[in-house]
Design goal:
single chain; alpha+beta; three-stranded antiparallel sheet
């Protein structure tokens, strides 16, 4: 199995998305694990789908 580029990691206060290739955090801090967002990033990243998922997870933390 190939190593995934983006993974969700638990941090104090929630989850963040880690970019293995860039070795840095990607996106915001999320209270719930962003499984669908990570799957969309690792699969062919469609900008419209990513935007919708980011808005959804951002709204969940309010």
């Amino acid at each position: 199995m190939a190593r995934r580029r983006y993974v969700a990691r638990g941090v104090p206060g929630g989850y963040r998305v880690w970019d293995n290739r860039g070795r840095r955090w990607w996106g915001d801090l999320y209270e719930l694990c962003p499984d669908e967002l990570v799957e969309a990033l690792n699969g062919g990243a469609v900008p419209a789908k990513l935007t919708a998922l980011m808005k959804r997870y951002r709204a969940l933390k309010r």
